[in-house]
Structure formats: structure tokens, C-alpha cells
Amino acid sequence: MVLSSPPPGGDMDDRSDKFRAFYAQLICAAAKTTDPRLEQAFRNVRREPFAGPGPWSISFGGHRYVETPDDDPAFLYQNALLALDSARGVNIGMPGAHAYWLSGCGVREGETVLQIGAGSGYYTAILAELAGRNGRVYAYEIDERLAALARENLKHFATVELRERSGIASDLPDVDVIYVCAGAAQPATEWLAALRPGGRLVFPLAPEGVLGGMLMITRPEQGAAWPAKFLGRAQFIGCAGLQDADAGRRLAEAFAKGWESVQSLRRGDVPDDTCWFAGDGWWLSTAPASAPAVTIPPHADITQA
């Protein structure tokens, strides 16, 4: 366990431990994962600091927020969206969805992880648990208020470095995993450049207002075609600097015709008849890359974060 915060005491904390143990099992069942490391990570990280003082506004995605009657921690340990800023639709995302996506990208002990869109830091803490004591997590958050919350919430995580700025920059560290929690119309070239061979980029190909998909791209040891696969549907708030209204419209049309057949990301060359969607200088193909794509179990849930 990476966390070394001073233990709070009392009956409420005993109840929180009980709720959290059940919640970890529940969301890993929802994510169809049997990875004990992932379940342990969700069990280890208390949600209370990241949610802030109650009562809280929660939603099951696509529905209005409902305010909890009080600050009983039982309300936090559900597979639901938890509002950080209900007016802007900024949430701690659906745990079952994130558990599924994290299972897909397979963060390993000792890896270096880059998170874009840390929010108040809850999934940053989960990533730190997965990377372990020998790993490292660089978390970027451009919103000043959220960055301040994340900095306070993560101060006991020795392996986490919070950076209060945009995660679209030329000086990103070289990493094994990039986990993006903000919707984009395209993969940032800076993210692709920061990936080490074998590294995985997981991001919502879903501009603001578009129900898109969580796309995982793996950097091969060699070759211009990178294995790519959608891990499921996803909708997020928009990532600043990576919005495009025309691309959003065309992506919505592409998703309406199916998305499960995507197998690779191509850059530079002219799209051929295997093209599922073409962006500016990149495109997604239904043809496999030279390296085998990562296989994950099917999951049809439509999820929001």
C-alpha cells in the first residue's frame, strides 16, 4: 500500500472500511475483472478526502444529480458519479468504468504513469496504488481549484507528483502508461511521443458533448502502425486544446456505425479502405497492426466519467 496518511479513528472509520471492502468487490465485478491488485487498490483508497465534505451530489450517468441526505460514507461507496462541480458536470467518474479501463491498460508494479485531468486526485491515488512503491505517477490538472484539492489529498502519496498545468506540452516525462480523464477529438502528439515502447495510452476519443469511446493505443517496438482498441463507450468533460466541432460531428457518425472493429492507429500515410475515422494526420484502421493488439473481455456498458 502506497498511502501513509495518519489513520483517522472511530466507529465511522470502521464503517467506511466495511463499505470500501464491499465497494471494491462490487465495482470489480461490474468491470468484469478478477485482478486482485485492482480490487486491493480500490479497497485501500478512502473516497472521503477526494469527495470533500458531505452531503454530496451523485448521479448514475445520464440522469440528474441527487443530493445525499447527510455525510454518511455509505453514500460514497456506490458505482455512481460523484459531483465535484455539478454546475459544470465535473465528477469523480464512474468507478466501475474506470476499473474496467484500468484493467484493460494493465498498470504494472514499478511502471511510470502520466495522468491527464487529475480532478481532486481519486484516480491518481488508485494509479499510485497500482504502480506501487517503485512506480511513479505524474498527475496534471489545469483547473486551479481542483489542483489545490488534489495537492492536499495526495500529500501522503510519496510516489505522486502533481503538476498544475496543461498535460499537452513538449516536456512530458517518458512513461509506460498515459491515462487521460478528459475527452479529446484526437490523441495529442505529445502523448504519443511520451510513450515508451510497449507503453499504453488510454484516452476518451470523445470531444465535449459527444458519446465516444475509451481508446487504448499501444506503442510498438517498431513500425508505423500502432495497435489500437476501444475499451468501451465513454463521455467526459472536454480536454482544453483538443476540441474540434467538425471532428466531433464526424466521430458521432462513426460511432453510430460501430466501433468494435478498430485495430490500429496510423499516422502520416493516406487512409485506405480500412479507415474507420480520419483525423488531421492520423487515422484509425480496422486492419491489425504488425504487433498483436491487447485482448480484453467484451463489455457493452455505456459509461460516463
From TrEMBL:
<keyword id="KW-0808">Transferase</keyword>
<dbReference type="Pfam" id="PF01135">
    <property type="entry name" value="PCMT"/>
</dbReference>
<keyword id="KW-0963">Cytoplasm</keyword>
<dbReference type="InterPro" id="IPR000682">
    <property type="entry name" value="PCMT"/>
</dbReference>
<comment type="similarity">
    <text>Belongs to the methyltransferase superfamily. L-isoaspartyl/D-aspartyl protein methyltransferase family.</text>
</comment>
<keyword id="KW-0489">Methyltransferase</keyword>
<dbReference type="InterPro" id="IPR029063">
    <property type="entry name" value="SAM-dependent_MTases_sf"/>
</dbReference>
<dbReference type="GO" id="GO:0032259">
    <property type="term" value="P:methylation"/>
</dbReference>
<protein>
    <recommendedName>
        <fullName>Protein-L-isoaspartate O-methyltransferase</fullName>
        <ecNumber>2.1.1.77</ecNumber>
    </recommendedName>
</protein>
<dbReference type="GO" id="GO:0005737">
    <property type="term" value="C:cytoplasm"/>
</dbReference>
<keyword id="KW-0949">S-adenosyl-L-methionine</keyword>
<dbReference type="GO" id="GO:0004719">
    <property type="term" value="F:protein-L-isoaspartate (D-aspartate) O-methyltransferase activity"/>
</dbReference>
